[in-house]
Amino acid sequence: TFSWTSNSSTLVLATAAENSAGDILFSDASNYVSHKNNSVYFVSSGKLYKRVLAAPNVTGNTAVTTCPAAAATSSCPADRLLLQNVEAFTVKYYDEQNQEVTPDNARSVELYVKLKVNRYPNSVLAEYKTRMVFRND
């Protein structure tokens, strides 16, 4: 099963909804509160995907909600395949004291991915780890 909340194997990032000119679409312009689209990064069957959950009922929003390939339609295109042969994908969340915390209390996030494929009878491995600090709530 999949969770569309951030956890140790799923990353959900909210981004401001934008129109075709790149202008932010606000739900409360006087307080600078924007409508939010969510990008969900998850692994299924050894493949890393990005799913978009577009902010609903927002006129002019250029984001389009995506779906699993088997359920894709013209109005809900397939999730974007980012990586194949994923052996590990982990997400860790840290507070300002560099302590591991729940996603709701995070100030930064660390992503780790390990890819493995068997070729010419050897295993070829690639690993990558990166850490990012959240700029805004």
Structural class: mainly beta
Multimeric organization: single chain
> What integer value in Å does the Rg equal?
17 Å
Element string (H = helix, E = strand): EEEEEEEEE
Question: Biggest sheet, strands in spatial order?
Answer: 1-4-5-6
End-to-end span in angstroms? Answer: 27 Å
Brief descriptors of the model:
mainly beta, 137 residues, single chain, three-stranded antiparallel beta sheet
In words, what does this structure look like?
The chain is mainly β. The protein has no helices and 9 strands. The strands form 3 sheets. Strands 1-4-5-6 form a 4-stranded antiparallel β-sheet, with no helix packed on it. Strands 7-8-9 form a 3-stranded antiparallel β-sheet, with no helix packed on it. A two-stranded antiparallel sheet has the order 2-3. A hairpin with a 2-residue loop joins strand 8 and strand 9. The chain is flat, with a radius of gyration of 17 Å.
Short description:
The chain is mainly beta. It has strands at about 10-15, 25-30, 35, 35-45, 45-55, 80-85, 85-95, 110-120, 120-135. The chain has one domain (about 10-135).
